[in-house]
Amino acid sequence: MSETAPKAVVLLSGGLDSATALADAAARGYQCYVLSFDYGQRSVTELNAARAIAHQQGVAEHRIIRLNHLEDIGGSALTDHSMAMPEEDSSDGAIPVTYVPARNTVFLSLALGWAEVLEASAIFIGVNAVDYSGYPDCRPEFIAAFETMANLATKAGVTGRPITIETPLIDLTKAQIIQRGTELGVDYSMTVSCYQADDQGRACAVCDSCRLRKQGFDDAVMTDPTRYI
Amino acid sequence: MSETAPKAVVLLSGGLDSATALADAAARGYQCYVLSFDYGQRSVTELNAARAIAHQQGVAEHRIIRLNHLEDIGGSALTDHSMAMPEEDSSDGAIPVTYVPARNTVFLSLALGWAEVLEASAIFIGVNAVDYSGYPDCRPEFIAAFETMANLATKAGVTGRPITIETPLIDLTKAQIIQRGTELGVDYSMTVSCYQADDQGRACAVCDSCRLRKQGFDDAVMTDPTRYI
Q: Using CA atoms, how far apart are residues A30 and A28, in angstroms rounded to an integer?
């Protein structure tokens, strides 16, 4: 990778979608500065997956920011261990209890700060508006509004080098994401999508995220490499 | 304060502007949930001031979120102790080295998460577009874009209970802010604005922030209660 290549900050959770977004950014020629968050999520194995994926993809740099605030302000089954993890289908349109308040806004804001320091020209986020779980901050209109705000917020916009928010997966089905990532060489056995994976990174097979992922491999007519408990 | 009063999250740095914004929110009948950040700023005395101001104003709750990320990503004289603190006048239109990358975006995003959990209807921030130091994220167009984004990002917007970003100081001169706060009973001797205050909260009198503050008291024809080194 040339050091004169444009830089991108890439949000990487360690899940299937963000690993694919990272591969997409790299394939488009960006130097990838990868950012993960340790925000008290149940699944620390997801972060171990993020480390392994970043290393394997040979990124320019990988940083993990520790955020305690979600444990303080509460409001999500992902970080509040007293809330039950739902196992039923949540496709009734309601916002699920696994929703983390303002999560993508917070993550993109921290990515924006790093992008500004790096003089990066893009931020990649693996949000998806098709096979998603009803989170408002995965919608294209949210991303567009964030990009507008970001360029008013920073030196980047003022000095005429705007930052774009890149969402290469936003219009893809889970099956299409898996097909795209496979073409780009993503090893999905390294990714962890489960909301309650065990210490070895094995998935529960029953949470929303597991069901969406499993269906994606089925629909893509591909072997599911996920390790289940 | 009635428990049925509307709730607001109020960003409080411990400085003159945010203390005035807090008094304004309280005067407008909000239950105030006050949020401060420990982000590695040089002036920890500012946080001590925030604690004292929140206590004195009898707020509903005061939380301090510790953010390490700015020390990691760098880019500001406020958190990078190897950068020199400028003492000359910075009113030449350039963005100063005291700028913290995406600071207000990050702070407002974390406030947004808490506001969503609390079902607060407003977030107060003491930004000011008149006597400011050239930060892009203090401009009205940034605030408007953030509000639009925030209501697309959260359940609040989806469920028809939008969150507003309140900037009671945005069009006021420093002198007008001081006059307004004095009417509301703000004790400015408790506030710390200096970028490099000492352990006792005494101000340097020479940094940008000190100069703007000092001029404000002069213009308001009021005695400056600031304790200087």
A: 6
Model ipTM?
A: 0.85
The answer to whether residue B156 is domain-embedded is yes
Q: Please give the model's pTM, rounded to 2 decimal places.
A: 0.87
In a domain, B226, yes or no: no
Give the count of alpha carbons within 13 A of B226, CB side only. Answer: 27
Residue B103 included in any domain: yes
Residue to substitute from A80, A133, A154, interface B, most B β-carbons within 10 A: A154
Number of domains in chain B: 1
Report, in this order, helix, strand and coil percent for chain B, each rounded to 5: 40, 10, 50
Picking from A73, A110, A136, the nearest residue to B114 by CB comes out as A73
The predicted pLDDT at position A168 comes to: 97
The reply to whether residue B145 touches residue A141, judged by beta carbons under 8 angstroms, is: no
Q: What is the CATH number of the domain that holds A156?
A: 3.40.50.620
Check residue A95 and give its pLDDT. 44
Quote the domain boundaries for residue B132.
Answer: 7-219
